[in-house]
Specification:
- The chain is an alpha+beta fold.
- The protein has helices at residues 16-34, 65-76, 101-107, 139-156, 202-223, 245-248, 257-260, 281-298, 333-343, 348-355, 386-392; strands spanning 3-11, 39-47, 50-58, 79-80, 85-86, 91-98, 123-130, 163-176, 179-192, 233-235, 251-252, 304-311, 320-324.
- The strands form four sheets. A four-stranded mixed β-sheet has the order 1-8-9-10, with helices on one face.
- Helix 4 crosses helix 5 (202-223).
- It is flat, with a radius of gyration of 22 Å.
């Protein structure tokens, strides 16, 4: 189809599911800080007045889970039960247990059926990159992330101090001949203070919020896209959004995997990232797949690139691997696949070492996406293999 509209969404750090991702990754970081060889699979559920932490841990470290949970909630902004959770009064229950020894023997080097460190589970992982943005990300998810990021920043710096932590965004892009041409629609749902003491009715309150969000959030973000955009916005489509956070909507770790990756623009293997140490290829191989795809596009070997891995539990070598460029590559996909297999580490231990994944860095991945980031901790976003790719060709 030569002309179509594609939509992606993002959610803020205060969305209940993202709160759980942040808690799980904050706990992971604490374990890695004290013991880089920690094995962590941490799941969180947040609901009215309660946070439940569960999962499997193998570590020499000891972590104060309650302290990590309260600090994370405070950082996000849940400091008052009226917002949907109070970090000081919330009840925290931990059900963390030891990792299964049968899994451990397949992951530990020199154990199980194979000598090398095997994958922590079976599964398939995808990576993707395209030249629609300087970050080499699809434009719809990139703009969606920037909108909720802007909402969070304006809330925390006091510019829009009536905002509350729970927000969502949605961006629709008109494509012609597979290139973005226009922003056709933007949707924002943002939690806010009850301001009926300042306005005559809910309609006036909603008009104020809509005007402020359009002028201070939406338009400044869209202006940076260098694309025309329609004045087609929906802000708080129900009319009001005061009651939010985990009190209004139960949150779970790993429920926003499309937000975490490419906004539906590229496939997702199905495994979530947050709360998992890098021995879990759901996370580490997805990061390597993005790294490979991004370096290929950065080298101008393709306009668009998809990479897939698959693994068997306990086995180091991937059960499959491919590079696909959708007809945009300067050389064949088969040749690119062979070159990538030669240049990039594809086994779990090689991925972990190359991307330096055993060090704390995961709490900041829990909002605004795992890809398209510029912070130094996002080693899988580096384009330091461009020269090697070009030399190999």
């Amino acid at each position: 189809m030569s002309k179509f509209v594609f939509t992606s969404e993002s959610v803020s750090e205060g969305h209940p599911d993202k709160v759980c991702d942040a808690i799980s990754d904050a706990i992971l970081d604490k374990y890695l800080e004290k013991d880089p060889n920690s094995r962590v699979a941490c799941e969180t559920m947040a609901t009215t007045g309660n946070v439940f932490v569960s999962g499997e841990i193998t570590s020499k470290a000891s972590v104060n889970v309650e302290e990590v949970v309260r600090n994370t909630l405070k950082e996000i902004g849940y400091v008052d039960s009226q917002y949907g959770m109070d970090c000081n009064s919330v009840k925290i229950t931990s059900f963390l247990d030891n990792q299964s020894p049968e899994i451990a023997q397949g992951v530990d080097e020199g154990s199980g059926l194979f000598d090398e460190q095997g994958a922590g589970d079976q599964g398939l992982m995808f990576g993707f990159a395209c030249n629609e943005t300087k970050e080499l990300m699809p434009l719809p998810i990139h703009l969606s992330h920037r909108l909720v990021e802007k909402l969070t920043n304006l809330r925390k710096n006091g510019t829009l101090d009536w905002l509350r932590p729970d927000n969502k965004s949605q961006v629709s892009i008109l494509y012609e001949n597979n290139r973005p041409r226009k922003v056709s629609k933007v949707v924002i749902a943002t939690q806010h203070d009850d301001m009926l003491d300042q306005f005559a009715n809910e309609k006036d309150e909603h008009h104020f919020i809509t005007s402020e969000v359009i002028d201070k959030v939406i338009k400044p973000v869209l202006d940076l896209s260098n694309l025309p955009y329609d004045d087609a916005y929906i802000v708080n489509g129900t009319g009001r959004f005061v009651f939010g956070g985990p009190e209004a909507d139960t949150g779970l770790t790993g429920r926003k995997i499309i937000v975490d990756t490419y906004g539906g623009y590229a496939p997702h293997g199905g495994g979530a990232f947050s709360g998992k140490d890098p021995s879990k290829v759901d996370r580490s191989a997805a990061y390597m797949a993005r790294y490979i795809a991004k370096n290929i596009v950065a080298a101008k070997l393709a306009d668009k690139c998809e990479v897939q891995f698959s693994y068997s539990i306990g086995v180091a070598k991937p059960t499959s691997f491919y590079v696909k460029t959708f007809g945009t590559g300067t050389i064949s996909d088969e040749k690119l696949t062979n070159i990538a297999e030669t240049l990039f580490p594809l086994k779990p231990s090689g991925i972990i070492n190359h991307l330096n994944l055993k060090h704390p860095r995961y709490r900041i991945t829990a909002s605004n996406g795992h890809f398209g980031r510029t912070e130094d901790s996002f080693t899988w976003e580096k384009t330091d293999m461009v020269d090697e790719l070009l030399s190999a060709i």
